[in-house]
Amino acid sequence: MAHQTVIVVDFGGQYSQLIVRRVRELGVYSEMVPWTHAVEKIREVKPDAIILSGGPRSALEAGAPNIDFNAIDGLPTLGICYGMQLMAKELGGKVETASHKEYGFRVITPIGSSVPRFAQDGGVALETPVAIWEQDGGALLHGLTSHNVWMSHGDQVLEMPPGFVLTASTDTCPIAAIENLARNQFGVQFHPEVTHTADGKTILRRFLFEHAKLNGDWTSEAFIDEEVERIRAMVGPDRKVLCAVSGGVDSSVMAALLIKAIGERAVCVFVDHGLLRKDEAKQVVETFGGHFHANLHAFTEHDRFFGALVGKKDPEEKRKTIGEQFVRVFEDHANELVGCDFLAQGTLYPDVIESGSSTSAKIKTHHNVGGLPDWMKLDLIEPLRWLFKDEVREVGRQLGLPDEMVDREPFPGPGLGVRILGEVTPERVRMVQEADWIFRSELRSRALNKGIWQSYAALLDVKSVGVMGDERTYEQPIVLRAVESEDAMTARAVNIPFEVLEHIANRIVNEVDGVNRVFYDLTSKPPATIELE
Ligand code: XMP
To answer: Which element (helix H / strand E) includes 59?
Structure first.
């Protein structure tokens, strides 16, 4: 089944990704393409509609981002901010650098809505409903009385191109929305994709469904059906795919999708290095081995990893050691795993956008593991490369993965190894696992985990004095960390109620042997990082 597609041409706007998300939320598949590759992509994909994004540049500058309007002629097109200015300029109108830069909320007036003859609230009946289209906010804004929109621009349209009509103004931006209904071309100076714009979704909905005539049938079920077909076509009737499963959301959903597509030919490998959170390894084996009846190769390798980590305290050395041991595991089990033609990887859409590439390449270095054996340098399959994280979670749910797995927070490849400062020993791992379990289950039971990007317990490499009963203690401290973040690039400590922290600290000191103090990390990123090492 081929889905309908909206291409968002990215002119470098800060909300371009958000446009894609909004369109997808409305049930239409959407992809973002940098303006430099847009025409090529449009020829390849043959989209059903185009949205031109905002952007930081001026359409008046020499060499400003552009698109050949002949290439999108006949396609329903919505220009947003810079996209509208470019549309106006390229189709024969004029753009000027405004005397007023507008940033933030503005009240927009759909043109004609204040004229009593057309008033919605004034109790006067509409005389000629047809006239609404041209006079009362036009095709996108009709029926919306003056409302707040989000603006962020320096340039604005001075003259509309031939064939366009004005559909809205603000007090400082006389031409704030335009349309040429006959050609299905629309422009809005404001940002309908941001939640601050009241009725932004209505405007996008009207564009997609009333004018571009799209179906809105892109759902996670439709994605699964389509992707299963694509994987089958790519892998063929008898080749195999190696799927490394870590217990994290992305690799679990990826593996579940491959199992659905090719069953036992999805060779799932799970390395339990002993540095996972409490009960996670058990859950991976139960879910994939038990529930999905996957062709699962689970290697329990605690001794190997702990052995290699003895005496190592330096963070980089620990990471390197863990990475090397992963490779050793694959080498030692090569005879069970060779014969695969593909390696599946849980790349997500934001990574694809970031790397700016849309073609898969032969793997050179693995995500977490450098220096893979040659037989593992396979062709890549990245079935989630079209999805955002929340869409991946939805697909996981549809595929029958348990909630705990689907809702799991990001977890680093080297696992608790980067949350145990100093030497990693089985005993110290146990302390972190127990404390982490208490912390996160207390948050979950109060629904405080919603909105948290990551939360965890870590162990410091010092000792301090305490007293328990009548006894002096000299033991190790746990650090709790919980952060909010959009993308892990920046992060802020979560404001957990003091009483909750106090209760958790009490439980940890009382229930986890070897711990006599608990700290809460308030540092943001930057200057700190999310993980301690
Ligand atoms: P930092 O600590 O650099 O972490 O602020 C940013 C995000 O990346 C995760 N992280 C890793 N993920 N392998 C991974 O797959 C790693 O080696 C690794 N180190 C950090 C971290 O959990 C956070 O989400």
So the answer is: none
pLDDT at 122 over 70: no
Protein residue with least CA distance to atom 19, ligand 1? 412
Q: How far, CA to CA in Å, does 361 sit from each of 84, 350, 365, 520? A: 36, 17, 11, 43
Pocket test for ligand 1, best of 316, 365, 531 (most atoms within 8 A of CB): 531
> Which domains does the chain show, CATH number per domain?
5-211 (3.40.50.880), 239-406 (3.40.50.620), 419-520 (3.30.300.10)
The catalytic residues are: 81, 191, 193
> Nearest-CA neighbor of 275 among 215, 333, 318?
318
Residue written as token pair 């990893």? 305
Listed residue (341, 319, 338) closest to 273, CA to CA: 319
Give residue 401's identity as a one-letter amino acid code: L
Q: Which residue puts its alpha carbon closest to atom 7 of ligand 1? A: 488
33: which 2 tokens?
Answer: 């393409």
Which range is most confident: 111-125, 212-226, 349-363? 212-226
Q: Which DSSP state fits 330?
A: H
State residue 488's pLDDT score: 85
The predicted model gives 471-479 an average pLDDT of 97
Which of 37-51, 349-363, 467-481 has the lowest average pLDDT? 349-363
Length of the chain (residues): 533
Q: Looking at the predicted structure, is the pLDDT value of residue 279 above 70?
A: yes
Q: Name the helix (H) or strand (E) containing 77.
A: strand 77-80
